[in-house]
Every structure is written in structure tokens, then in C-alpha cells.
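Page 37, continued from 36.
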């Protein structure tokens, strides 16, 4: 599974060739909400709506086993920050056919500053 291509997609919301199955299923869990999308175009449209000017993405741990990858990311877009856990599953052709997202949600500048002040991180 091409985690670098997936990270590039997160940065730009542009669909890279050969990454997603056309009918990829997306189960998106965001703070206080859950919704599902079907199709690569629908996923890209949602991602573009979330970050119309793109995102700065830092990839943390990646666990790749068989046809499943778990990817930790930190994303900054338009002054908003989120930590995410992505579960990617691929089909027999190696295309991602299922995406599950668990997201801390967007933190604004005040929340980022409060977290740094009140709960400094021991590890990044």
C-alpha cells in the first residue's frame, strides 16, 4: 500500500492514479459525528472541502500488515490542527477500497495553545 501517495492526497485532496478503488468506502468518525461516503470522487470532494488550500501533513507511526495499513497523521490547515488515525484496507489489486478515519477534530489556535500550556506532551 502506498502510504506516501495517501499522504500526498491528504495534503492536496487530488486523487493520485492507482491509489483508491473507484468505489472506495469511507467511514469517517469526527468529534461528535460519524458519516460515510462512497467513491473516490466523493472522498476527494470532502477532503477538498475540509482544506480548500491544502494541508500540512506530518505522518507518524505506520503499521502495514497484509492488506491493511494504520497511519497516524497530524494535519494543519487554515490555522486548524487535528490528529488522525487512518485505517486503510486494500483489495486484491492493491487499491485502497476502504478508509476509516478517527479524528480529534479541528483545534483552533486557542485550543492548541491551551493544550501546550496545560498538557505538555512527553512524546510526539
Amino acid at each position: 500500500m502506498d502510504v506516501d501517495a495517501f499522504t500526498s492526497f491528504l495534503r492536496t485532496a487530488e486523487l493520485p492514479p492507482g491509489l483508491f478503488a473507484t468505489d472506495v468506502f469511507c467511514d469517517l468518525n469526527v468529534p461528535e459525528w460519524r458519516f460515510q461516503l462512497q467513491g473516490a470522487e466523493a472522498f476527494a470532494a470532502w477532503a477538498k472541502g475540509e482544506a480548500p488550500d491544502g494541508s500540512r501533513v506530518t505522518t507518524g507511526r505506520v503499521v502495514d500488515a497484509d492488506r491493511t495499513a494504520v497511519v497516524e497523521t497530524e494535519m494543519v490547515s487554515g490555522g486548524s490542527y487535528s490528529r488522525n488515525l487512518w485505517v486503510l484496507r486494500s483489495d486484491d489489486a492493491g487499491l485502497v477500497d476502504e478508509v476509516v478515519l478517527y479524528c480529534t477534530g479541528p483545534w483552533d489556535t486557542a485550543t492548541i495553545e491551551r493544550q501546550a500550556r496545560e498538557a505538555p506532551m512527553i512524546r510526539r
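Residues 40-50 form the longest helix (11 residues). Flag for discussion at group meeting. The chain has one domain: 3-118.
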